[in-house]
Each structure stands twice: as C-alpha cells, then as structure tokens.
Amino acid sequence: MRRPVSADNVTVKQRIEIDKPGRATLSAGNGRRASALNGTTTRKKTRTSFFGGISLLNALTYWVGMAGTAAFAVTAVLAVAPRGIDFFGATVLGIITAIGGGTIRDIILGVPVFWAADLAYIWVALAASLATFAANSLFTRKEIYSLMLYLDGLGASLFAIAATDKVWALDFGRPLAPVILGIITAIGGGLIRDVLAGRQTLLMTREIYAIPISFGCALYVALLAFAPEYRSLGAATAIVLIFALRAAAIHWNLTVPDRLASKPKEG
Fold it and tell me: Would residue 10 count as lying in a domain?
C-alpha cells in the first residue's frame, strides 16, 4: 500500500503543484508545504488612484501638457488670422505650433514622440485651432495680438516645466539638459509659428521672453535636486512664476536694458 504523499516526505528534488480549486499546493524548495489555495489565488496588491493607477503628479503633468498644447494652437491661429488665411492653413499651423517644441525635445532625447503615443494632443490642437478660427472675427487686431502674447506666455510656462520634469525623470544630462530642453520646448513651437507666419520671432526682439522661462526652469531643477518631496508644489510655483513675469513684461512693455543689448558700431 502506498503511503499518501504529505508535505513531510516530499524531497528537495520533488515538486508537486496542484492548482485545481480545493487542492493543496506543495512546494519542494525546502520540503515544507507552501500554501493551501482552497479555490483562491494570492495576488500582489497594487496601489491605484482616481486616475486609473496613474499618480496624481503624472496626471497633473499630463493635463499641463494638454493645456499648453491648446494655448499654442490658439496663438498660431491668432498670429495669421489678420491675413485672411483659410481654415485649413490655420489648423495646420496650429497643430505644428502646438507639437513642434515637444517633438524637437523627444527627438533629442531619443524617445518616442509624445503625440504619436497619445493622439489626444493632436485632437486638442485641432479643436483649439478650429474654435479660434471661428471666434477670431469677434476681436480687433490689437486685441488679437495682445491675446496671442498672453496665451504664448501661458503655453511657454506650461511646456517649459512639463519638459523640464520629463527630462529630469529620464536622468538625461542632469542638471543642465533639463533646463536647456525646457527652454527649447517652451519656445520651439513659437519660433516655428513665427517663421511660417513670416513674423519677427519674439526671441529676436528685446522683449523679456526667454529670460523668465530660463529662470523658472533653473529654479525647478534646483528644487528637484535639493527638495524633490515638494515636486508638485515646485512645478506649480514655477509655472505661475514664469507666466507672471512674462505677463508683467507684456503689460508694462518691459524690455531688456540697453546695456545688455547688442549695438552695431556706427559709421
């Protein structure tokens, strides 16, 4: 008569695993019984959130990027609206402007381009462009230009910090690369917009444009390096700071001082 197999006489080389409901599972790793399933399985618990498992900070970064996309798309349409461009040209320029800076950033990083993985960015840019094209007749040229500047500042502040955060998370060229790519992402779309629209780029004027972006990105990198536990608060603060400085420059027509501007030799 065979003796029933028990956990006590399972040798090290033996392994009995019965996954059927109601049966015991034996493991021969050390000759002891591992567990009794009794029709259930043990699974590792994972932490979830209101965003489907995505952390609050990642969700915040995502929506910041979406807001920046919409803002830059609007500025592109406003930039060419006074020229009587058709809706197709306006929407194409809006999409190119909205995704231009981030595309340059991802190519430099060597990672998949952000909008290819999530086409919602394209749809948001398209919707914002069409909505702006339909509503631009409600504003005068002066109002359109002023609105474009403020929205450009908002989009730049959002994109700058979102890009800086992404580059830092990838551990790419710390600490300088996050600042540099944050600036490139923030102004890249605007540069493409102005070149395609045949306008003088804001970077080539004496307006205080890139300085607030550079300052905000550098401040955020410093916070990530020395106080990463305040990452969310730091990101929000940097965004507000960049936009506040840019808005103040627009409102009071602040420019770079003469002594800091290039002067060609006369004669």
Answer: no
